[in-house]
Amino acid sequence: MPEKTISIRGETINLGQLVKLLGMVDTGGEVREYLDSSVVLVNGEIEKRRGRKLFNGDTLIFPDSQTIHIKGSSTR
Description:
Blueprint: E1 3-7, E2 12-14, H1 15-21, H2 28-37, E3 41-42, E4 45-46, E5 53-55, E6 59-61, E7 67-71
Parallel strand pairs: 1-7
Antiparallel strand pairs: 2-5, 3-4, 3-6, 6-7
């Protein structure tokens, strides 16, 4: 899968919001189930918290090997 950069407004986006934005689920309620049943890596570590804040420069890898780079308005 190719790599993709997602630009966000502001400093952060929650993992659950990103999963919905990418179209992996339709509702917020489905996010928890998706994260419980999938291996999502944030900066190389498994992440299950839908409220995990993602910042400029974070890299995510999803089960389909899709790599997402976060580009925000500032850094940590």
